[in-house]
Amino acid sequence: MKLAIDAMGGDLAPVAPVHATIECAAKFSDTEFILIGHEAKIREAGGTFPANVRVVHTDVTIETGDEPVRAVRRKPNSSLVMAATMVKESAADVMLSAGSTGALVASGLLAIGRLQGIDRPALAPVLPTFNGKGVLLLDAGATMDANAHNLLQYAQMGCAYSRQVRDIPNPRVALLNVGTEPGKGNALTKEAFQLLESSSLDFVGNIEAREVLDGDADVVVCDGFVGNVVLKLIEGVGLGIFGLLKEQLTSSFTSKLGAVMLKPSLRGIRDKFDYAEYGAAPFLGVNGGCLKAHGSSSKRAWVVALEQARKFAAQDLIGQFSHELKD
């Protein structure tokens, strides 16, 4: 297996991706890890590399402020686009980046291309749940104007991914809606409900946004506009709550004393909602492995994402998707 890694993408690049790659390369001798980026900076960050790590040099990167489609077209030698091109040309099985989400989506569409039968791919992050198992949400922002058939395909691909990568034998699928009753929602969700209900999937019905993190479904589908709003709202609320807790628990001597006693419990809550343990978000529906790590991924988050990328490649998920879509 070969993994193409955008070593220059993300807040902690190249140190975090390089250190994580070295750790994973020592663990998985059957995998070639291809670090793409500024060679001098990569080697300075990592020192001595295992034999199964290769560096491909480029000093071109896609910056946060770049317009995604224009950047992908004008910067074919950027580390992110080169990783996608390797997947397109079968020089790598999976690409992984913590860079611009928009640029990764554009690279997936323009450089790798859509999977046959898919016209609206989906970004599929795993959200933390209160039971610690996580839930796959798709689409989280790749396609804003999906139709009902697209949502059915999201569910099919999400189930295949959940079985092969997340080890869930029979994933439960729910449709994100404004109410749990079958007749709720707009024209899109009403039509999607009918398609999902008549499919062979384990469809558990509509789910409201307040129930998404309860863990009652393994795959939740919606259009990209709604999914992106949900994703960012959850991130914002989570950061706000933890920030408020920190402020309150350090506001006085008594609070600090209580914080010492509560520290183990608070650490358990933090770990359960730590994005680093949930890996990267796959871009499902493109004709190759394409994964997006969190922009502020630490070494630990990169290690989890790299292990996930290996599993993606080993399970022949592209073939699995094609099979699912025929059913």
UniProtKB/TrEMBL annotation:
InterPro entries in alphabetical order: FA_synthesis (IPR003664), Phospholipid_synth_PlsX-like (IPR012281)
Compartment(s) where it occurs, according to its Swiss-Prot or TrEMBL record: Cytoplasm
Keywords in alphabetical order: Acyltransferase, Cytoplasm, Lipid biosynthesis, Lipid metabolism, Phospholipid biosynthesis, Phospholipid metabolism, Transferase
Record bears the keyword Cell inner membrane: no
GO terms, biological process: fatty acid biosynthetic process; phospholipid biosynthetic process
Record's protein name: Phosphate acyltransferase
Coiled-coil regions listed: none
Pfam families named among the record's database cross-references: FA_synthesis
Catalytic activity: a fatty acyl-[ACP] + phosphate = an acyl phosphate + holo-[ACP]
Lineage of origin: Bacteria, Bacillati, Bacillota, Bacilli, Bacillales
Top-level taxon of the source organism: Bacteria
Function: Catalyzes the reversible formation of acyl-phosphate (acyl-PO(4)) from acyl-[acyl-carrier-protein] (acyl-ACP). This enzyme utilizes acyl-ACP as fatty acyl donor, but not acyl-CoA.
The species this protein was found in: Alicyclobacillus ferrooxydans
Enzyme class: transferase
EC number: 2.3.1.274
Ranges annotated as spanning the membrane: none
GO molecular function: phosphate:acyl-[acyl carrier protein] acyltransferase activity
Gene3D superfamilies linked: Isopropylmalate Dehydrogenase
